[in-house]
């Protein structure tokens, strides 16, 4: 069976086509600048060069039609007919408290997604538009929603509630939700496989460190805490997001700049970018640090220190830890980050072998063989999880 996986942003649409007989990717692509001048589709049939099509793409419906046309193309396509598509899976950012697992899309689910939209005003409306565009193009193909928040729904109330008046939770749904749940789920399950032990026996800290970053404490297969919150803004220092700050800093800046500008400052102008003054990309910050730039060195230290603190906190929250997993752009690729985060964690039972750490983008255990706590790099694969859930839930 072939499954199309879609990740819709407000002006973009990413996709992959899987052959679920062997879980291989047949094609992938990205539509950019939907509704903006200069829109284009970059489509890659696996094993061939990417093909870029520049065209007016005023909305997601036109984007979906263009993607389907590419999938059927005689040269770079991977389908003879759209009937070969068994199902379509969508990444949906926010499932609120309505969804604790992936779900087949029905009219009732669409209504629930619309109820969740105010919680993720930038993302969920785009996800809904993507589902509607597929429904228009492929009305008889089943669709499944896979939520970034769902894996975190197992958190206990003392971890997900904020100590603000209860009415903000009861009436406005203000609480910790957490994000990157699909990635935390994939790498924690894979970690258990690598260790050859049932996940129900394990306490795992998963560090998804990318442009956006979050950690999760996964005890016995269930999330008990995670570092992102009501939105993806809190937690560790990120590319442009500030991570944890004293909430009074927010009101202080807001009094000067207004709420909207403050939101932009904390989400888009802070983090590595705000501290280094150089870049949101850790590679640039690392280059600056290596050349002796003090601001870059500070930004790097702040990021790795914040991750280290969360590891300590989550080991305490779970009463121990069996494995620490690094994943996503930084976690998979940055040996320096992995070293700076793990140095000094010997008290927890972490014993590193840094001679194994100098590599990028593959699955590998980087702790010493006699380390009580295993430290493992696991490339994440959110699209594959979406494809697997879609296959399971669509019929
Ligand atoms: P993601 O959001 O998971 O795609 O991660 C993207 C981020 O990973 C980039 O912004 C970089 O900061 C980081 N990254 C990718 N490769 C490297 C590398 N070799 N060293 C350090 N950081 C990297």
Describe the protein:
With 395 residues, the chain is an alpha/beta fold. It has 2 domains: 146 residues, Nucleotidyltransferase, domain 5 (2-Layer Sandwich); 186 residues, Nucleotidyltransferase, domain 5. It is built from 14 helices and 14 strands. The longest helix has 25 residues. It starts with a strand and ends with a helix. The model has no long low-confidence stretch (mean pLDDT 97). It binds adenosine monophosphate. The site of adenosine monophosphate has 13 residues, from α10 and α12. Belongs to the acetokinase family. Its cofactor is Mg(2+); Mn(2+).
Provide the CATH superfamily of the largest domain: ATPase, nucleotide binding domain
Helical residue percent band: 25-40%
Number of domains: 2
CATH topology of the largest domain: Nucleotidyltransferase, domain 5
Number of strands: 14
Q: Structural class per helix/strand content?
A: alpha/beta
Labels describing this entry:
about 400 residues; alpha/beta; Nucleotidyltransferase, domain 5; 2 domains; eight-stranded mixed β-sheet; six-stranded mixed β-sheet; about 20% strand; globular; binds adenosine monophosphate; transferase; acetate kinase activity
């Amino acid at each position: 069976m072939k499954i199309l996986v879609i990740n819709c942003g407000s002006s973009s649409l990413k996709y992959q086509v899987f052959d679920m007989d062997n879980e291989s990717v047949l094609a992938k692509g990205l539509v950019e600048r939907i509704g903006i001048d200069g829109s284009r589709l970059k489509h890659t049939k696996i094993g061939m060069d990417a093909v870029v099509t520049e065209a007016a793409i005023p909305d997601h419906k036109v984007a979906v039609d263009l993607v389907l046309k590419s999938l059927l193309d005689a040269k770079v396509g991977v389908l003879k007919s759209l009937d070969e598509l068994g199902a379509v899976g969508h990444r949906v950012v926010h499932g609120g408290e309505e969804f604790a697992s992936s779900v087949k899309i029905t009219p009732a689910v669409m209504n629930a997604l619309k109820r969740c939209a105010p919680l993720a005003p930038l993302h969920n409306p785009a996800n809904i538009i993507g589902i509607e565009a597929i429904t228009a193009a492929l009305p008889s193909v089943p669709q499944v929603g896979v939520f970034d928040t769902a894996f975190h729904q197992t958190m206990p109330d003392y971890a997900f509630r904020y100590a603000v008046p209860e009415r903000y939770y009861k009436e406005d749904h203000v609480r910790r939700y957490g994000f990157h749940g699909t990635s935390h789920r994939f790498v924690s399950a894979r970690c258990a496989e690598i260790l050859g032990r049932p996940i129900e026996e394990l306490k795992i800290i998963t560090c998804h460190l990318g442009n956006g970053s979050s950690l999760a404490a996964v005890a016995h297969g269930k999330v008990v805490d995670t570092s992102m919150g009501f939105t993806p803004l809190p937690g560790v220092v990120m590319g442009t997001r500030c991570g944890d700050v004293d909430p009074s800093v927010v009101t202080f800046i807001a009094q000067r700049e207004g709420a909207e500008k403050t939101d932009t400052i904390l989400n888009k102008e802070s983090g590595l970018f705000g501290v280094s003054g150089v870049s949101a990309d850790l590679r640039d910050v690392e280059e600056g640090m290596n050349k002796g730039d003090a601001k870059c060195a500070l930004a790097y230290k702040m990021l790795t220190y914040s991750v280290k603190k969360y590891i300590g906190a989550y080991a305490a929250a779970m009463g121990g830890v069996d494995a620490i997993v690094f994943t996503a752009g930084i976690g998979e690729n940055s040996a320096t980050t992995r070293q700076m985060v793990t140095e000094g964690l010997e008290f927890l039972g972490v014993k590193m072998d840094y001679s194994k750490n100098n590599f990028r983008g593959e699955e590998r255990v980087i702790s010493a063989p006699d380390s009580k706590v295993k430290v493992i790099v696991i490339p994440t694969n959110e699209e594959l999880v979406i494809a697997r859930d879609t296959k399971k839930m669509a019929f």
